[in-house]
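Quick question: what would this complex look like in 3D?
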Amino acid sequence: MPCISVSGLEKTYRISLRGSGLGGALKGLVKREYREIRALHDLSFTVEAGEILGYIGPNGAGKSTTIKIMSGIMKPDAGECLVAGMVPWQNRIAHVRRIGVVFGQRTQLWWDLPALESFRLLQKMYGVADAEFDRNLDELDDLLGLSPLLPIPVRQLSLGQRMRCELAASLLHSPAILFLDEPTIGLDAEAKIAVRHFVREYNRRRGVTVILTTHDMDDIEELSHRILVLRDGELIYRGDVEGLRAATGAKRQLTIDTVGDGEVPRPADVEMQESGGKLSCLYDPRVTDINEIIASVTTTRRIVDLMSTWEPIEEIVARLYREHAR
Amino acid sequence: MSPYWALFRTEFQQYLQYRIAAVAGALTNIAFGFFRLFLLTAFYRAADAVQPMALPDLYSYLWMGQVLFSVMPITGLFGPDAEEIRSGAVAYRLTRPVSLYGFYFARVLGQKVTALCTRSAIQLAVIFLVLPLVGLSRYGMRPPDVAMLPFLVPSLLLAMLLSAAMHTFVYMTGFWTISTRGSTSISYAVISLFSGLLVPLVFFPPGLRAVADILPFRGIYDTTAMIYNGASSVSQALGGLVHQGAWFAGIVLLGLALARRGTLRLEIAGG
């Protein structure tokens, strides 16, 4: 049975418009104009228990809106949503006991107090028994290396340190579902890796269902079992990362180090760029055989080294966004 | 331990750290206290009419206002909590298994109790200990009327609760206006006038006085100050307590209704 099921979700925002300049401002005093922005349209999907779901889409696609609806903060205009058997907005308090939420752009910790004080407060808010709290904090400390951070006022933590505390704060009450809204935003490479490692390991140990929104494709590749791609409030892809490559005609990138300065004949359907003996070829493996490229290169050059990879997932996703642009 | 009690305690703990702010606030209140005191003294000297309040009582009344100032739903209204709806931070609050109104009320009350224990306590110490030392005891505060203590303590408590309820109510208006700056400015004006902070209510002309008596705002200051001075009869003091209690209940209910309807129409933008 799916852990989350969403069907036919609709949400429209009313945005107030203001003319520019003094004239527009004065007009706005008397008559307000509004425009309706459709954030979600007929959105349906399911999430299985224990799954890590990557939820991606360009800015303004409706990802955060969906998260806010599933976490019980906001009510949709229409549609159904069941999270672990409950309608989130109907009984918010009972619902939020079973979920953990991290909004990467905000903080849930008391700014001027040590993180441990916020943790204790959250323990009281969720009514977590002391024994369970200690056990959870121990485990989170083990995975996130929290001990040295706990006595420091939160305002004096670096963003990476704070994000480790934010993750811990969202899990102290052992939620069954974890919503991560851009948990790696603004983090350095090391902190990002720490967050990813933690999410993967915690999911493996506890079987927690994770819904992850992010713009970082490394997050998606390394964590998500399955992805949903949202554009203008509608799903444009659902499946795994491999499937995304197939669906979008993802290309492979072949990099060849060569010596010699003869002109290289370019095979049809291959994009080729050269800088200082290094050839960079982008090709669709279903159309072009790699041997064909290598053969044409060896007509004029000698190969020193070569490497072949998929093109970055960023490119694939950007292409997918462009194809579905309104 | 209830979540609201834990919130109250955490807020108390957090605000206890701001020691310099407490001292600075207390000294500001003292300075403005003298300013108001000399202003009204000058009025007394210039007028021939018999005043409804003797000068020493007036001074006590004024100082009570300065001491309670940090608790009134005026101080801290521009703080970070006030902007939580506008900034979207309210999103996190809604992911907690507690009532949104209860969350903010517990926090606001925690902040007010801290203010009473620090800023107001420093002021009282200055008024009762320092003023006599520097020969200014005639401008000080009279001791409370002992016979009225059984009314004074509950009245002070109710003044705190009523202040917290009004304060939380202003926050909840953010669900409609997004920013609470407008409601804050309006409440600042209304509260200064009708609580007795601007001019003691005994000086009000009868018509305006009748309005002030009905409105809730005297409950955060005037009622308590009059009991302190022993200027209220027992029945007036009792009536004052009932007035405070009834408005406290009423404003809490209004605030709860705002929070309930507000969360249903809430749209959290960005990020």
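Answer marked as accepted. Chain B has a mean pLDDT of 89.
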